[in-house]
Write a structure and sequence with these properties.
The protein is of the alpha/beta class and 208 residues long. It has helices spanning 27-32, 41-49, 53-58, 64-75, 81-89, 96-105, 119-124, 141-144, 151-161, 175-183, 194-203; strands at residues 12-15, 22-24, 92-94, 110-115, 137-140, 168-172, 187-190. The chain has eleven helices and seven strands. It is elongated.
Length: 208
Amino acid sequence: MTGIPGKSSIRGVVFDFGGVIHSFNFGLFFRRLGSRTEKTFGQMASLVAGSDLPRRYECGEISSGEFYREMAGLCGLRVTEEEFVSAFVGIFTPIAPTVSLIRALSRSYRLGLLSNTNEWHFERHIRAVEIFPLFDAVTLSYQVKTMKPSEGIYMDMLQKIDLSPEECVFVDDLEENVAGARRVKIHAIRYTGHEDLVSSLAALGVVA
């Protein structure tokens, strides 16, 4: 089944990754490396939360090697780079209903992936997921050097997917990112669960 004729002008559906396609738990990273430092789980989590390292890495301001060295120094980690990367990328779990929805939508709509992410999460996890080839356009914060909810990252996606804002709907789990999309006239839905997502898409005339 395709979009309802005459009811919808939506031709593209754009998804966030973390919290929409795969869930993630950064605590797993600290737990996996807990035996490689004198710091506690809470101390590591607090140190990272109080730093700007994740933002700088997701904005492409520092390289992967710099991120590893600075994180290892901050958390007192005694690990090789490969051990660090293995723990860093092992934080994701597929959200199966979204994965199935993307497969179904790919038959009738152009699909986009718009994510605040970093090089290692993309290269070692996101691009390897089974549905990644279904995306017609991919915009990643570390590559374009700006993050949601800044206007530029949405405009990059629109250019790549070759659709107008009014022809796209964006799905994200964070309200500020949904609001950012709406500011540039993209239809946007906050992801709170599968059934609500399907209902919200249907209200826009988007059905799989």
